[in-house]
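Researcher: Sequence recovery benchmark, item below. Answer with residues only.
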């Protein structure tokens, strides 16, 4: 998995050990990498490798049911938990920015986010555009920015969801990669042409993904000035690190931006601020014309706020009550998926044999078909059924599939049985940290948690500890992730299915904990869909040892009269 993260087809800057998200590293330097590799080669199944911010502390005696590898990245003592102190710690070689699955060695290329984006766009259409449960986004226009590591998934996801889309990207080399891979269908640096292609596809209700080579702010100015209706609008530039090159100011080419970043970072930061503010103005103007804008987890709203724009805050003062535009989790992914436990389960066929992936896809689709309960299951079935046709694999033969707790456990057990029977080679299970229970991040994953606990990092920490206690093969806990240092704590896991009974036992316990810990916390925060999921769970899973604390909503009038 560590080499998959650094594969030239997958990694953003493989020579710098950066997998994605501009700065998300597998470890800090090649000496660490070589030591980690050495330890992995010689370790026994009674040892655990400990990795702290990329530094392999060594092999420690443990036992067969213990994790083989425990990773942490960038965890800082509260007083120092800020970007400035992190930069200093990174410069002296003691802190690594692991992003999520970069430092957690579970990245599977932009496919990882295609499914989430597909789900987000479809459900945004259902919630805001009146798309029926069995419908898609045919005839609708989606605009966004970024065709990098993760953002590169946007065009493809929009196409699978049936939409016409235009994605702005300043770096032509990124466009070249996505075009060659077939993840965008058209490319142009002419604004009028980009819009014309999209409108033709809207008219014929055919999907398309147009890469516009240029700045998102130029594109938004054009559509606003020409009165072009945008149904869905988002952004996936690397706004979690806007001043480190993540966000390109208007008026600079990609090459000029790179030079200025090196030669005059202060002037660069000023231009970033100016463009972010103008970007925000255009979003507001389009919103007033009926566009649905959502922050797609790249800290765009926070970056605008950090330039000094207070009007972006719900309370007009500070970010404590969130922002006037929703994060995609707050409005869409949280209530429609995470609150039920649906999240980004994924697997990698370690044989690298495409036939193994076909067999696992078929097994997963069969399971979903037999357990089709909600519209989310229908979406997941369609996704899995068409996954091969959509050519989503980059690097090792991996798949992502949103599933709830039971779905994840049962599909995992099925894969382990298939390994046991010799039908397929070993499979590494995992997930994105961006999940129901894996991440505490008030502007993203936990943005639909409204009981005040969204500033706590205990869910992600408990999730990580619980996965370790139940014996997942690899567990990781990080600071930062997709939103920046001090803004999230996130964790993930890896689990090798070797066909053994030992693995069955771990899967039965850990897969359910990994998801239901998150649903339980969401339920305690009084999220309706999480409450009903927990109620059903308590009714059906008591004999399997579950007893989750449920909230009972007090009568408002009674409380008022008591006060
Ligand atoms: N929502 C999620 O699930 C999720 C998942 C992963 C990453 N993210 C976040 O999304 C962001 C993007 O991630 P990534 O891995 O694609 O990063 P990336 O740095 O690889 O890609 C961002 C792209 O945006 C382009 N860009 C920057 N400024 C631009 C501008 N003004 N106009 C047009 N293009 C511009 C860059 O050239 C780059 O190619 C990050 O902040 C990341 O943390 C969100």
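Model:
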């Amino acid at each position: 998995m560590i080499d998959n993260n650094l594969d030239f087809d997958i990694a953003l800057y493989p020579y710098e050990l950066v997998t994605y998200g501009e700065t998300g590293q597998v470890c800090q330097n090649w000496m660490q990498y070589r030591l980690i590799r050495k330890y992995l080669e010689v370790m026994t199944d009674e040892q655990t490798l400990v990795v702290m911010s990329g530094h392999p502390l060594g092999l420690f005696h443990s036992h067969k049911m213990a994790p083989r590898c425990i990773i942490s990245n960038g965890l800082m003592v509260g007083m120092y938990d800020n970007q400035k102190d992190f930069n200093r710690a990174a410069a002296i070689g003691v802190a690594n920015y692991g992003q999520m699955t970069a430092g957690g060695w579970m990245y599977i290329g932009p496919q990882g986010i295609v499914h989430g984006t597909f789900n987000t766009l479809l459900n945004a259409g259902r919630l805001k555009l009146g798309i029926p449960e069995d419908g898609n986004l045919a005839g609708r226009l989606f605009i966004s920015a970024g065709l990098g590591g993760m953002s590169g998934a946007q065009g493809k996801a929009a196409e699978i969801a049936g939409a016409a889309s235009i994605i702005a990207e300043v770096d032509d080399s990124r466009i070249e990669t996505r075009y060659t891979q077939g993840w965008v269908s058209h490319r142009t640096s002419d604004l009028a042409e980009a819009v014309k292609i999209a409108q033709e596809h809207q008219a014929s209700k055919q999907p398309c993904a147009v890469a516009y080579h240029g700045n998102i702010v130029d594109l938004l100015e054009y559509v606003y000035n020409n009165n072009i209706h945008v149904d869905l609008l988002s952004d996936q530039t690397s706004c979690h690190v806007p001043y480190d090159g993540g966000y390109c100011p208007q008026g600079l080419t990609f090459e000029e931006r790179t030079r200025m970043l090196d030669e005059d970072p202060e002037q660069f930061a000023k231009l970033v601020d100016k463009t972010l503010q103008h970007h925000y103005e255009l979003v507001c103007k389009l919103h007033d014309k009926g566009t649905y804008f959502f922050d797609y987890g790249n800290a765009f709203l926070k970056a605008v706020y950090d330039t000094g724009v207070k009007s972006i805050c719900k309370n007009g003062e500070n970010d404590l009550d969130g922002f006037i535009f929703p994060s995609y989790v707050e409005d869409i992914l949280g209530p429609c998926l995470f609150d039920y436990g649906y999240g980004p389960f994924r697997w990698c066929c370690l044989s690298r044999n495409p036939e193994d992936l076909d067999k696992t896809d078929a097994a997963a689709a069969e399971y979903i078909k037999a357990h089709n309960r909600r519209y989310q299951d229908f979406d997941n079935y369609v996704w899995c059924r068409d996954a091969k046709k959509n050519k989503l694999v980059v690097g090792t033969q991996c798949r992502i599939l949103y599933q709830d707790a039971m779905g994840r456990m049962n599909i995992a057990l099925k894969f382990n049985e298939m390994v046991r029977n010799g039908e397929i080679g070993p499979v590494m299970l995992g997930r994105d940290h961006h999940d129901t229970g894996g991440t505490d991040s008030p502007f993203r994953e936990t943005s639909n948690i409204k009981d005040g606990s969204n500033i706590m990092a205990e869910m992600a920490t408990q999730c990580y500890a619980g996965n370790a206690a139940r014996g997942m093969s690899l567990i990781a806990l990080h600071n930062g992730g997709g939103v920046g240092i001090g803004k999230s704590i996130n964790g993930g896991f890896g689990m090798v299915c070797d066909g053994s009974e030992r693995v069955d036992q771990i899967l039965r316990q850990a897969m359910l904990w990994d998801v239901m810990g998150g649903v339980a916390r969401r339920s305690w925060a009084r999220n309706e869909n999480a409450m009903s999921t927990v109620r059903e769970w308590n009714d059906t899973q008591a004999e399997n040892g579950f007893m989750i604390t449920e909230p009972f909503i007090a009568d408002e009038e009674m409380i008022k009269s008591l006060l």
